[in-house]
Amino acid sequence: MSEQTTPRLYFENPVGRLLEHPDGYAIVAYNPGKRKLSDMQAFLTHASQLLRSRGWRKMLGDQHLMSPFTNEERTWIQNYWVSRTAQGDEIYGAVILPQDVFARLSVNLVMNEAQESALTYRLFDNETEAKAWLMQLPL
Fold first, then answer.
1. From which domain of life does this come (predicted)?
2. Cβ–Cβ < 8 Å for 62, 37
3. Which residues pair with 129 in a beta bridge?
4. Long-range contact pairs involving 105-113 (C-beta distance under 8 Å, separation at least 24)
């Protein structure tokens, strides 16, 4: 565990906040409410850049307040973001499930589609368990 434990803001837009955790992973925290596809694309593109620039392979997806993914967002995440982010490297994602049942269903759809990629996801109901799983993984 690092001495500095407060995550640092890396990027923010209407979709949410990207934070750099000193323990070597990105926090991808979604805001509630509807999103524009262009804002989602910018948000996740910055997430990819954060992982690549730090040489990180782990992220915590805090989706507990998130609204359901639209079909357009799901298609873009699967066809563009997942393949570009991993680029042959294994990426690990601990995802805190949304409270909204429809958002949970949309997250499960995205995760099922992403299983064929280099992204390894685990779904959690709380942040404590999600962080514990990330911390047991190799850097």
1. Bacteria
2. no
3. none
4. 105/68, 106/68, 106/69, 106/74, 107/63, 107/66, 107/69, 109/69, 109/74, 110/69, 110/74, 110/77, 110/78, 113/74, 113/78, 113/82
User: Which residue in the block uniquely carries the two structure tokens 């434990």?
Assistant: 5
Domains and CATH numbers, the chain: 8-136 (3.30.750.24)
Provide the whole-model pTM.
Answer: 0.89
* C-beta of residue 33 within 8 angstroms of C-beta of residue 67: yes
Contact between residue 17 and residue 9 where contact means Cβ atoms under 8 Å apart: yes
pLDDT tens series, the chain, 139 aa: 445 679 999 999 999 999 999 999 999 999 999 999 999 999 999 999 999 999 999 999 999 999 999 999 988 988 888 767 666 678 899 999 998 888 988 888 887 766 566 678 899 999 999 999 999 998 7
Residue type, 31: N
> Contact 99/66 with Cβ under 8 angstroms?
no
